[in-house]
Every structure is written in structure tokens, then in C-alpha cells.
Amino acid sequence: MSTSRDAILTRLRDNRPDPKAHPLPPVARLGDMDNGQARFENSLQLLGGQVLERQEGDTLATAIARRFPDSKIICSAVPDFDGTIRIEELGTPQQAASVDVLVVRSPFGIAEMGSIYLSEAQLKDLNSAAHLTQHIVVILSAKNLTANMHTAYMDRPEFHTANYGVLMSGPSATADIQGVLVRGAQGVRTLSVWWED
Amino acid sequence: MKVKPVNHAKAAEAFIEDTAHMDFHDERLWDLRQKRDGQMHILPEWQELRARASAIKEHTLANLPEYLEQFEANAKKNGIHVHWAADGAEHNRIVGEILEKHGAKSLIKSKSMVTEECCMREYLEPRGVVVTETDLGERIQQLDNQMPSHIVVPAVHKLIPDVAKIFAEHYHTDPNDNSAQSLAWQQRLAARPVILSADAGMTGGNFVVAETGSFVVCTNEGNADLSATVPGLHIATIGIERLVPRMADMGVFIRMLSRSALGSPITQYTTHFRGPQKGSEMHVVLVDNGRSHRLGMEEFWTSLKCIRCGACMNTCPVYRRSGGLSYGAVYSGPIGAIIDPTFNERKYSTLPFASTMNGSCTNVCPVKINIHDQLYKWRRVLAEHHELPFVKREVMYMAGKLMGQPSLYRAAINGTEVALSTMPRFVLYNWLNPWGKHRELPHPVKQTFHGWYKQNRLKTKKKEGEGA
């Protein structure tokens, strides 16, 4: 046992306010309960994400080819799309850094924020791939939308099971230089959602 | 040797002289405040969220030892190494030892105010560890050898040409680059190879969940996720006050954090770390550094509720016009002014006076910290501890005497009218009146409100009373 640990805990016990005076409020489900696709898309666009355009007769492959015509390495993390390389074939982050487009399926999205969730289960234990790729295409089902952050944290089991779980809300962004919003900072430069139903 | 108090007023003076920078700083932060208001108005439940966030945090702080033990037990079960640091020195030693054990010579890190508190870079670098800040604003500050001037937007006091100059010097880019986009791209290009070859990564943590043994990191640039997932070693440095009991509590906080900070609904990345990645190692260093002491300060312990959104800074007229660096402390703005004195009462004795007491900080705080009340209480504590400068002390003593006696106060106020209109400038504007340095004293009024009231309303009231 570290002595600092015990010293800190003892000092906290000595100094803390009366626990009886500060009861824990019950968990709340607040806010707008709309979990519709329109709300999700609206929020997604607000945060700089986009919906991958689906034209008549499009497959995911043709839609990606049209959206990212210059991309050379298209990496798939899903069984139903081939790409040029499978995520399992990328052994290291250094190899993942060469990917132009990563295609991955998200187990759920959050309508309030336009967020999509990814964990090591979807990223096949190469979590860095989601951030080293230039662009990311996320397959999502409208059936898997939850209304807001309260419903997400209360209903989705992933927050209790995944070692790494990221909510991505649009692409990486920064406004650190003179307040100018730049979409595409150090992580993905674009984030597109492909509706699978 | 006695440490000298930060001369906030003098540093602010220098900031104010540079009009272009000050005007931008003022407008940029006010814009963030307005964006925050826009988000707040969308949510009818905003005040309920604040009340709940405050209650959850107060409950957690009152039960902190139990929640810390619960977190530790769960995190260990998940495979996280948990360390406890009583102060900055111990934190740095722990981090240094972890790095040494792994033979790690390069550390990439995302923004963490706690590591600033601990002066970690200054400790590690002489020991042969290259520390690279990967957050754009923080990197600019690192290259410029300055502290972050704002807890959310560290380089907000700089303009594009300042950044172009710094990047030209260190990244050999065009010194006349006047595009934020292209400069941000330069940072991406410069950071990528450093990230890919780093031996270890470090993040902070916005929230720690006792129930799951997880911690949550909220960022925008993607650099924190890169720092955590690319190297095989992830160290997270987190203040012990960052706990929440349950994962389900996170909804309340995530819904308010970025809305309060930047006026965006959520940060681009909200990342939940519950254990190491496959084949990697994860360490959490829980840092006290004065927090357990602060918990015992009856009037100031609720400042530990802070979730570091920076809303109080964005709204503060003094902060907006004096710049974060003028506070001479890791934490600036209103929240800095109430927590910095707990680190060093004498050094930061001037900061609680850097306020107009307009209470705006309290109104925007998502966890309902009574910031302006605490600013006032600190002034009293500092006066009692004799940490006031001579002029302030004497003037306040006089003011206290005057205001304690209505008749004396009124006589004095009537006197000021005469003084303001008849006294020569050098009597009114001198070192005894720092208030008058950048301001004109108010125009003397012909009649005080009290005088007018006595003459008009009091008479009318009497008449009405007589009639009834």
C-alpha cells in the first residue's frame, strides 16, 4: 500500500463535508426523447459530419469511390465490404497511418449530438486506426439511434464493457488559431455516415 | 525568502496597451459566451441539469474517499495500474519511473491542466524525456515557452501572425502564412511523425467513473485519442476531484461541458477508457496536490466541483481584458482566482481582486459554484491574513468605517461631489487611486440619490400618510 494513498484518503475523511447533507440524486432521463434520423442528421451536420450520398443503384463501394476519388487505400473493418485491405491485416498503428478511408460499423448513434460510437470490438483491437485514417465512413442503422446522452449512458451496455469506447461527433476540429474553425485537425479530416437501411 | 504576490494589474496593463490583441481576445471570448447562451436556450432543462450536476458533484466530494476506493478497485480489475500522488513532485516521480521502466524517451501528450500544475515537463525534460504537447493551442504555448492562457483554448491571446512566427521558427514554415487552416495543417504534418514514433502517450481525464473504473476524456482535435492509442503505454494524470459515482451520471455532464465551454453541443471526441488496449499498458495517476486540504475549507470546498469548462473566464470582463497570462498562475480567470490562493495564499493574494463582482461567473457555471461569493470571501480571508497591499488595506479600512455609519457615508458622498468638481487632477489621479489609472472618475452629480429621495419621495410619502 502506498503511504500517499492512505494519507490522501485519511485527509479526505477528516476534511470532507457531512455526507448526510449531500445525498445522491437519482439518475434522470431528461430532455428531448426524439431518436429520429432527421434529428441525428441535423446534429451531425452541425458538428461537421455528413451523410454519404446514396444515388440510385449505389452500393457502399460506388458511393465511396465517388466521394473519395483519389483514395488509394480503403480499409474495411466490416465483413460485408471489401475495400483494398482488411483492418486485421494492418498489424500496427504505423501501418494504419497509410489508410485513406476506413469503413467501420457503429453499434449505435446519438440523435441529440450526431455522435457515433466505436470500440475495440468494431476496430478489431486497432483503436488508433479510427484516428490515423484520413477519412472515416461509418455504417449506421437508424434502428440503432438513441435519443440523447441520458438514454445513451443508461441504455447502452458498451459503456460498461468496452475497454476503449469513443463517441465521435463529426471529424476532428480545432479553433485554436485566432478562433478560426478548422475541420480536420489531427484525427479524421471527414466523417461520413452511411445509412444501411 | 518571502514569495512576491503576482502583480496582476501591472501584467494586465501591458496586455491592454496592445489594442489589437486585447480587442480580439475580448471579442473572441464574448463570442464563446454568446454561443454558450444559444445552446443553453435550446434546452428547457438547462437549469435542472445545472442543479443535478451540482448535487452529484457535492455528493461525490462528500463521499470522495469511498468513491476513490471504488474506482481504484474497479480500475485494477480492468487491468489499469492505479497510482496516488500527494503532490506535484510525487506525480512527476511516478511518471518518470513508469517511463524509465519502459525505456521511454519520447512522450506525446494531450492537454492536461494537472500536469501544468505539477510542472511535469520541467521535471522530465532534464531527465532525457522529450515531451511533445499535441493539442494545437498547447503546442503553440509550449513552443513559445508560455503557460496556457486559458484552460480550454490555451493560445487564445495570440493572433495568426504570432502563430505563423512561432511555427516558422520551429517548423520552418512560411513566417507570413496568414491562414489558420494552413497553420493547423502544418501542425498536423509536424505532429504525425512524432506521434507515430512516440514511446508513451499521456492524457488527462475530464471525468472518472467510480462504478466502472473508467475515465472519460473530452477533446476536439483527435490528438488525445492518438496519444492514448498509438503508443503501447498510456498514462492518464487526473485530479482526485474528477469523480462521478455512476456511468449514468455522465449524461448530465457531457450535455453541459462543451455547451458551456465553446457553445458546441458536444466535443468532437468523447472517449471512455476502461482498461488497456490489447497488448498495451495503462496507468492512472490520481493527484491530490492540495485538493484534500481544500475539501476542508468550509467556504471554498465547492470550488472542487469545477469541470474546467472555462465559461467563467469567457464571461468575465476582467479576464477578457487582461488575458490569462496576467494571472501568473496555471488557472486564470474567476475560477483561477478562487483556487490559486489555495496553492499559495501570498503569491496569488492579488487575484481575488481581479473582479468587478458582477456575478456573471456564478451565473454561467454549469455546476453552480458560487464563484463571486468566494471571490468576496477570499478578499476577507486575505485581509485577515494581512495579505493585502498597503493602499488597498488602508482604503478598505476607511471604506469599512464609512459604510458602517450611514450618516458618515452620506456626508462623505456629498463631499465627493465637491471634491470631484473642485480638486485638481493630481489629487484625484495618483498612486492612492489605482482605479483612476485607465479610467476617468465619474462626473460629479448635482444631487445624490439619497438627497433626491429625501427631498421628493419622502415628502410625498409623508403627504400620502397624512391623507390616509
UniProtKB/TrEMBL annotation, chain A:
Top-level division of the source organism's lineage: Bacteria
InterPro entries associated with the record: FTHF_cligase-like_sf, LUD_dom, NagB/RpiA_transferase-like
All residue ranges annotated as the LUD domain in the record: 88-190
Protein's UniProt name: LUD domain-containing protein
Source species: Acetobacter okinawensis
